[in-house]
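Please produce the structure of this protein holding zinc ion.
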Amino acid sequence: MLKTVMIMRFFVVKSLFYLGSIFMLAIVSILFTGLITFSILPPFVQPEASLIYGNDGTIIAKIFAENRESISYNQVAPDLVAAIIATEDARFYSHRGIDFIGLLRAIIENIRTRRFAQGASSITQQLARNLYNLPMEKTIRRKLQEAWLAILLERHFSKEEILERYLNEIYLGHGTYGVEAASQLYFTKPASDLNLAEASMLAGIIRGPEIYSPRVNFERAKTRQSWVLERMVTVGAINREQADQAKDAQLTIAATPTKQTGGGYLRDIVQKTLGERLEDGATMLATAGLKIHTSIDPQAQAAAEAAAARIPVTRTDARGTPQPQIALVAIDPQTGEVRAWVGGRGTATPQFNRVVDAVRSPGSAFKPFLYITALEQGLTAAMQIECEPTTFALSTGTEWTPSDFGTKYHERPLSLREAVVLSCNVVAARLIDQLSPQAVVNTARRLGIQTPLNPVLSLALGTSETTALNMAIAFTPLANGGRTITQNVGNPILRVEDKQGRVLFETKPLLIPGALDPRVAYIMTDILRDVLTPPGTGQRASTIFPRPAAGKTGTSEDYRDAWFVGYSPTLVCAVYVGDDENLPLGGTGGGLATPVWAEFMRDAHAGLPLQNFVRPVGLDDATICQSSLLLARAECPAELRRTEIFMPGTTPTEDCSVHAPIPLFPWPWNWFRNDQETP
Ligand SMILES: [Zn+2]
Ligand SMILES: [Zn+2]
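Below is the modeled complex.
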């Protein structure tokens, strides 16, 4: 009994001391109003998320230390303001920083329950606590500090300004600060659009986001919402009918956090670029509310992420990363701008941005650079090379005998067109031997490959490793009539503004002609179009994406890396699929990348007008006979006739020598025939 009395006395004394101190403080502050210069209000900072915009002006990602987005008082639904005031500080508009009535009531309550617990902090006091990062422990010293700062805040700012700051400052759970970010998080809509049901639920979260978040426990959040609505009725903000309606209203809570487009890889590029370009760039990014305008097309980006997600996960590695992994990057060949970027899937390794960091063997996807070199040196798509076991003596003193996949050979002559479409390795090896590996290196460099290239025969089969970004960049001249990207190559960031809209830096890609003859680009494209239809190695693509498009598959040794690099006139896209630890993908390796590419292209082109590759002037069409590689005659069988495109000067001029018109003496023609079939 004695003990109880003593505890009682302790609480009364402590509470009265507290109340007295606050009163003293108030009196002192009023007495000194005219004397104190208000520059003594300590400065505070309010970190703000930087926003990443897509090329259509929509926000596609945020970078933040705390997820926050400031809005003005007028952008908050009045119901939300009313709900928060009713719940947190009903006398907000009548007190001057400290709600003495509420305080007295709280002290009585504290004495009654013998706890020095809930001090009824006004909205202004809560704001002071947040703005100055006051320690959370409930000491009298801290309370006095908070009260003093609250009084100062009231002297400096209007009620509306205080409320606006408060609305932008409060923590609302799941790393989210301020009502705008929270409104997007819970209800995927701006705070201006919240209805009474949503507003009352959000207001209820303030007192304990870990307890009252509807994402944590919907039933508890719902009970809390009812309590908030009752408070609103009590203070006269709403009537009984409105409260009941709001209680019954169906609420849809967003189940997962607002999707971070690009799985963090886009933020990774932004972070890296700003770190390089701006002093203190990384910090500014997290706190300064920068606006980062990119060339990313949200529709293409969504298509890329969806397509990447469709690759089956075969294992999860030691770091919890799903395997195989993927890199997908898409470039608009008409501007050189990056439209989509997927650096991988899963969240375990966001630092490993596979579009630029996975340096892998492109396999046969490299072959177009070889065939471009051939066309440039006067060879034609119709020319034939025999696919048969061939051994090359290498400069290292060793020998090399390339074969097609599965140690097979076509055992017949293939036209260069066929060799590309069927991805014949022997023809590629014989061709690079003829042209010189250095010539192929030069072509690949000129088109935009920046990774080291080894001038050896096996370069034709893609043994020099490179990245998905390099491949997309180097295929771009094929899609746009021979123009290469210079300046801001492969970087989606176009412009960065500070919070006030001042441009911190601005850049864009430039396309310059001359790297590739538009006619060569067109012939190569025409060949690569055949890859997408049977019997081409990428034949699965045309059924999924039936628009005009061209591309090349690539599979490295033992099916460790699967590639598809292809393009339409409006989009170039490189897809790489492979295990981070370079494990074989299994027998289906080659088939993995093609459908990803095709599904991405289909969805990225949805709604766009159909576009054909533009044929440049100065090309010749000629129908040739495959037996003689000369101009077809009426006598040449239909299955041997083929219309091919030629650079001027390379078109055959003589008629077929195999299927000559039946001469007066028919016998010699039959005798010659077999000899002439092999060129
Ligand atoms: Zn072959
Ligand atoms: Zn013929």
